[in-house]
Design goal:
Blueprint: H1 3-15, H2 26-35, H3 53-64, H4 76-86, E1 89-90, E2 102-105, E3 121-129, E4 132-140, E5 143-150, E6 156-160, H5 164-175, H6 182-198, H7 206-212, H8 235-244
Antiparallel strand pairs: 1-6, 2-3, 2-6, 3-4, 4-5
Helix pairs in contact: 1-3, 1-5, 2-3
Amino acid sequence: MTGQELREIAVETAMQYLGSGELNGGHKKIVDTYNGLQALPGNYKVSYKDSWCAVYISVVAIRAGLTDIMPRECSCGRMIELYKKLGRWEENDAHVPKKGDIIFYDWDDDGKGDNKGWPDHVGMVTAVSGKTITVIEGNFKNAVGFRNIMIDGRYIRGFGLPDYEKKAKDYANESEGDDMTQEKFNELMDNYLKELSKKPASGWAAGAWGKACNTAGKDGNAIFDGTMPQGFVTREQLAVLFLDRLGLLE
């Protein structure tokens, strides 16, 4: 496991909530996951009417297993303080972030000098291309969505920099010397598949998944049976799905 792979995991986890929002009730699952913490930060239980951008980033950290490097909070300001305690806060507005870094905004920024105002919003960087940063955010127009902002652009408050590289090294140290037998691998895989079977369709795929479970192929059966929406699929299964089940094979 490398730092870059952990960055990919963080972003992929964030993407699973794309489209979840207040209109479709998806944000309630995000809030509920956060409120399910045994010790709530600040001892504050978030309501469905609260701003939930920091809650979303916290839930991504929880789901990705990165809470030791990506602090959980429902307050953007307190989240910044936690990054400072970790020594992973970047104050420079002109910093060029990497995928998986956390970006904070201040809507009162006048665009002059280094912005040090109170943060109003937060998101996760998914890509940097040229001078453009692409960010995925919770509570963006009341849903999980994307924003593009220029490097050193107005409203940037600063960056939280989760230490993915250190986390990757910790993983390597923990696994060093472990004897991975076939039996142990099979047990780990079985447990993983059991957990996978419990996961519902991601917010961005829920509509298409529902249609696929209610649309019959040429044999009269639904394309999918409604189970394990995030389960694995083989290439031969894809061939049958896209061709035979849709009546495209002779």
